């Protein structure tokens, strides 16, 4: 049994249904230590045969048997491993990866061995030294002469210490001096006990080997021994694996650096979409926060005032009275914490202090909708006290309204007594505090109001109530909705509600909706980004078709090729999200600086959640965009890719 045997290899190409037989029954055996030259006319099928031996082509009949084991039944993964471990390819046109340095080109192959990183690098240096390229390791292929390029290819082919070197016209593109040097290297490889099979047109090349095989009409026409073969090697091939994820990440980065300008533009383009989404979300948080802050700083959103038959000029006081039945009904509503009596008077109120008087157009009893925060100086009124609005306080003391706190005034109220005669009620009250401009109203306690009327024997009943609602602003709307379900005559709502809670809740819903709509519109630019990434990756696949062929020939699996493009997409997503986040942060910084000066509030609030969302969306979109191009790259035919110009 020979080391490598070819049994009745037949191969035809088909153009449509027409068959073009190229190999019509090849039987050959090879031993380690041989340096075999295959000669034959152009188009005779030499490259076809090499591709079959090298595990690049499995679409043939017959059998290739290595060490007694047939390649016929190997899966595509086993063939990948066979090319990685057992075969070293040297091509006429070198097939180096142009964006990698000489050293990196050799390392690509070594990264598929199980050697440690340090040993891989040591071996790359050794191999390059062996082929005389120590001084050129940092150069790129286009900075090398033809002979030098072929030596890089030889060093790369030797990376995993394979037992078979397949050289397809290795000196075809070289002058005679370089040809001699390359032949010397190939001979040296054979002398180390490896099997070297080379395709050539040149008799000189053929004569320097140990054996010449001629192909004619798809068959072996001559098989001549030139000299004795070298002794077989005892060395073992290095164990290998396909390109690891880390290596594909690194290669993707190298490629992005190679096409830096284009990739920067893509990253920038993709970042715009993510940036807009993050900014919209941040602005949404800020605007919502600001509006709520403004409202909550003045009124309590968890309290509502409920009145009956207000605004109807024909309404008698009696009709407006909130009866015990009304109050109990309200008390029974879910989440209602308390129902408190209130009384308002519209007009007929005057306040006098010394010579100054102030008319109050609307007066109501102090209640839970009024926040402590809305009192700028002093405090809420207790019995026999009054809280003034800033406007009223200024009427009583223009220069120093705050000095009124603790002082007394006389409260007058015009009304009708039981006999419907006009009477003036009066009472001395102490000023308890001053409310902020335009918020709340001049107010006294319900008991004080009651006692003022009582002085003229008038009994008052509450003409509104204040409901406090438990469990936050979200519970306000349902309570309000429940109150609205109580209908009177002509299906008119029995109660009127005033309070900001429900409104704030609705407002928040609208703001959230608006932000989401805006973020979605911004998100449309993400679609544009995705399409842009798809296009760029397709271009990248077609630009790198040859590289894909080379990697596959070196034994990288389809999966690794797919990873290569996913890695590239991942980096586009990663970099664009980083850029977008940075830009959004800068914009937020500037906007907040300005807003802080103007409205004393951070108007753009980008949360860690928004940042994470932006990052994930960016990476996921990029990876999704890579699906089709990466799939296409993985499916490329290795032989066609290698001959891609
Ligand atoms: N993919 C293909 N589809 C159809 N025909 C092909 C294909 N590849 C090769 N052939 C044909 O098969 C024949 C053998 O090609 P091959 O490249 O093996 O010859 P060769 O002996 O290596 O030629 P040369 O010495 O010129 O490189 C040629 O006639 C070629 O046109």
UniProtKB/TrEMBL annotation:
Subcellular localization: Cell inner membrane
TM stretches of this protein: 264-283, 513-541, 562-591, 611-630
One annotated GO molecular function: ATP binding
Record's keyword terms, sorted: ATP-binding, Cell inner membrane, Cell membrane, Membrane, Nucleotide-binding, Transmembrane, Transmembrane helix, Transport
Pfam families for the chain: ABC_tran, FtsX, MacB_PCD
Membrane topology listed for this record: Multi-pass membrane protein
Listed name of the protein: ABC transporter ATP-binding protein
Origin organism lineage: Bacteria, Bacillati, Bacillota, Bacilli, Lactobacillales
């Amino acid at each position: 049994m020979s080391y490598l045997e070819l049994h009745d290899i037949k191969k035809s190409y088909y153009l449509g249904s027409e068959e073009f037989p190229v190999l019509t029954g090849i039987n050959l055996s090879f031993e380690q230590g041989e340096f075999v030259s295959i000669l034959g006319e152009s188009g005779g099928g030499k490259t076809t045969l090499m591709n079959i031996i090298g595990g690049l082509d499995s679409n043939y009949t017959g059998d290739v048997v290595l060490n007694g084991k047939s390649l016929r039944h190997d899966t595509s993964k086993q063939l990948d491993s066979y090319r990685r471990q057992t075969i070293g390819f040297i091509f006429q046109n070198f097939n180096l990866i142009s964006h990698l340095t000489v050293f990196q080109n050799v390392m690509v192959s070594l990264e598929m061995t199980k050697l440690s990183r340090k040993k891989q690098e040591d071996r790359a240096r050794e191999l390059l030294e062996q082929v005389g390229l120590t001084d050129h390791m940092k150069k790129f292929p286009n900075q090398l002469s033809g002979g030098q390029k072929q030596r890089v290819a030889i060093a790369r082919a030797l990376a995993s210490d394979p037992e078979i070197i397949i050289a397809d016209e290795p000196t075809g593109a070289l002058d005679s001096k370089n040809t001699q040097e390359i032949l010397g290297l190939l001979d040296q490889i054979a002398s180390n006990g490896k099997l070297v099979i080379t395709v050539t047109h040149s008799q000189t090349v053929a004569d320097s080997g140990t054996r010449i095989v001629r192909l004619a009409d798809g068959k072996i026409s001559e098989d001549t021994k030139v000299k004795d073969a070298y002794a077989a090697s005892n060395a073992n091939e290095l164990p290998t694996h396909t390109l690891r994820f880390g290596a594909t990440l690194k290669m993707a980065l190298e490629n992005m650096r190679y096409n830096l300008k284009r990739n920067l533009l893509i990253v920038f383009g993709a970042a715009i979409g993510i940036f807009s989404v993050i900014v919209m979300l941040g602005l949404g948080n800020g605007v919502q926060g600001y509006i709520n802050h403004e409202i909550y700083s003045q009124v309590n959103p968890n309290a509502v005032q409920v009145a009956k038959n207000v605004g109807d000029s024909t309404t008698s006081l009696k009709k407006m009275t909130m009866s015990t039945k009304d109050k109990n009904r309200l008390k029974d509503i879910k989440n209602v914490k308390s129902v408190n009596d209130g009384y308002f008077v519209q007009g007929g109120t005057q306040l006098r202090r010394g010579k100054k008087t102030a008319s109050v157009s609307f007066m109501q009893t102090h209640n839970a909708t009024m926040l402590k925060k809305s009192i700028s100086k002093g405090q809420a009124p207790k019995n026999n006290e009054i809280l003034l609005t800033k406007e009223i306080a200024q009427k009583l003391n223009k220069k120093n309204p705050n000095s009124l706190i603790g002082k007394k005034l006389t409260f007058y109220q015009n009304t009708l007594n039981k006999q419907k005669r006009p009477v003036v009620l009066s009472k001395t009250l102490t000023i308890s505090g001053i409310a902020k401009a335009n918020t709340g109203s001049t107010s006294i306690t319900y008991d004080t109001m009651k006692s003022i009327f009582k002085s003229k024997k008038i009994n008052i009943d509450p003409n509104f109530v204040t409901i406090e609602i438990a469990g936050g602003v979200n519970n306000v709307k349902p309570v309000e909705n429940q109150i609205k379900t109580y209908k009177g005559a002509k299906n008119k709502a029995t109660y009127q509600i005033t309070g900001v809670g429900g409104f704030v809740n609705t407002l928040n819903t609208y703001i959230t909706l608006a932000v989401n709509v805006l973020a979605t519109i911004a998100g449309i630019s993400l679609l544009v980004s995705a399409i842009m990434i798809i296009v760029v990756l397709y271009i990248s696949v077609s630009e790198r078709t040859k590289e894909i062929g080379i990697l596959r020939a070196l034994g990288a699996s389809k999966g690794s090729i797919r990873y290569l493009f996913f890695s590239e997409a991942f980096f586009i997503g990663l970099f664009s999200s980083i850029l977008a986040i940075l830009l959004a942060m800068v914009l937020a910084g500037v906007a907040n600086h300005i807003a802080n000066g103007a409205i004393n509030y951070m108007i753009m609030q980008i949360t860690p959640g928004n940042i994470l969302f932006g990052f994930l969306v960016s990476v996921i979109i990029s990876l999704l965009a890579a699906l089709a191009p990466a799939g296409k790259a993985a499916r490329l035919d290795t032989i066609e890719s290698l001959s891609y110009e």
